[in-house]
Amino acid sequence: DESQEDQRAPHRQRPNRAVSLEQLRRLGVVYRRLDADNYETDPCLKEIRRAENYSWMDIVTIHKDKLPNYEEKIKTFYEEHLHLDDEIRYILEGSGYFDVRDKDDKWIRISMEKGDMITLPAGIYHRFTLDENNYVKAMRLFVGEPVWTAYNRPADDFPARKQYMKFLAEEAH
User: Fold this and answer.
1) Distance, CA of 40 to CA of 87 (rounded, Å)
2) CA-CA distances (angstroms) from residue 79 to 53, 64, 73, 98?
3) 105-122 confidence digits (pLDDT tens)
4) How many domains does the structure of the chain reveal?
5) What's the pLDDT at 17?
6) Distances (CA, A) of 143 to 55, 56, 86, 111, 114
7) Considering the domain boundaries, does residue 43 fall inside one?
8) Would 14 be classed as within a structural domain?
9) Which residues of the chain register pLDDT less than 50?
10) I need a surface site. Which of 15, 34, 82, 112 has the fewest CB within 10 A?
11) pLDDT for the residue 64
């Protein structure tokens, strides 16, 4: 739902309307399920990294006892923004939500838990929050050197946004 109440709540519509992986794919969002218990030696992850040229990786823990400036970071992650490169996250422990805008500019909440990997395309408006468990450990992947810059909405003049909007228009046909 579009509620501004506690960002960590599930925010399901009533009745709930599930979104399929195909609907996410039409938004450019790629979902994969991997073996998070064996991420260090997982041949599937190794192949994804090779095929997608994900040459840079780190692991971040988002929890009040582990992340410096935790409250400020949580607020920043939840500001609606886009990136000029794809955002790739693989949940190793814990859980949270990625919210993305659909073609009608409505929020879709994507529940993420251990083993879930998501790729958000450059130019898509999105945000992230922990869920009510208040903990996630995630792998961040990049093509080349990491670029952390988030551009808060409105950011419609960036080439990445224009390219994304073109992609959405082509998917509609």
Assistant:
1) 20
2) 28, 19, 10, 12
3) 999 999 999 999 999 999
4) 1
5) 86
6) 6, 6, 9, 25, 23
7) yes
8) no
9) none
10) 15
11) 97
